[in-house]
Predict the structure of FAD/FMN-containing dehydrogenase.
Amino acid sequence: MGRPEATRRAVLRGLAAAGLLGAVRPVAAWADTGSASGLGPLAAVSGGGLTTPLDPGWTAATRIFNSRFDDAAPLAVVAPTTVQEVVATLGVARDLGLRVAVRSGGHSYIGASAAGGAVVLDLRRLTGGIVVDPETVTVTPGSQLGPLQRTLAQTGRSVPVGTCPTVGVGGSTLGGGIGIDSRTDGLTCDRLVSVDVVLPSGEVVTATTTENPDLFWASRGGGGAVGVVVAMTLRTASARDRDVVAMTFADADAPAAVASAVRWTARQQRDVWATVTIASTGVDDVSATVLMITAKGQGTSAAADLVRLVGADPRAAQTTSLDPTGTLDLFARYSSQTPHPFVGGSDILRTVDETTAIAVVDAVRARRATGHAASAIVDPLDGAVTDLGAADTAFPWRGHTAVVQWIVDPLAADDTETDALAWLTDCHARVADRSDGGYANYAEAGAPADRWFGANTARLADTRRRHDPDGRIVSPWFD
């Protein structure tokens, strides 16, 4: 058989937006935003990291990964190098009555860190980098997933993260962090040992299970703390050699491939993971590509087992044995490295039976019928994800079967944002009776907070009120 089609159509798993839980507050206008004098207070404390609309570097400073938001108009961008500069920037924001949007990697689906009318606090220049200890790693939020994993691989260690190498550690972790090791080692946020947070008041605190436990709880899947997370320490796990299996099934077999892959994965040991990407270019027929991760040497037998369950042969298949670095390289090839426009969203599914699988596949078929591309990516939420209860962390989806990511990526020149968003609405409707919400890292504008945080919403809101009563930090979920 031939080589399978792209196993991940734009692997966009982690989102930026390291600061959250802010309430809506009117943003005060600067006395003179069109002159350098109006920016004087920020210039004085930013250590040279201030970029304004008058600077030649303004376009580069404001661009994020989703170019749908290239026209966003923040008041300024501050790129601190020290925690002290973060503290000082928040102090100026308090004095001027301004809001602050936090950027770790800039991959937010809804442009959260573009934040028109706010000061963007870009943490990618923050010093500290990646510090590896025998069983933990401490990292700044603006560090990227790819370099983090490559650094850890050199010591035989790993953390469970998403597969897009340019996503920021901060936003991805604070929103949850789903990836190929989730069944084995849990979500990225489950590995958190501590976070260092600059609160809107300017106080710098450490949060753990015993010290500021409310902030620590909110940092584990609530989309971020109530201030600016400037460092996080995570427990690492052993890095592993693997077999990676990709099998592409035809349109007619796509529903069976989806239902079978989910059912098959749930019966396996936790070191096995599988995802299904249902996709069409808008011209080609819909296909379903199952991507399986197994222990090294087990991929061939696992693939045969799944094919029997599907009841149909794939039209293309490939099995590759890879070391940890090779696995990173593989996913990097299927992850876009260049900013571009895209539209995405998600549903958290209680079950993925045959009826659910048909609904998911039909959503992509409906998009294809309009002549436009789309994908639905179904990832498991079982295994180690279920070791914690729904209220143990802010991430609430501990008893669900899967998350389906709906994505139009890229948004083509002959497509429209309006049509893509309408397709998202149709997708939600098709699975409404088996969905309990969405994944915060696949955020959608305008949805209520309880869509992302379920029964944990009230506790998150209360945490915000106590630590950020003025709503200083911009939140895509609570604003």
User: Anything to note?
Assistant: Residues 72 and 345 are 20 Å apart (CA to CA). The radius of gyration is 22 Å. The longest helix spans residues 354-369. The chain has 14 helices and 18 strands.
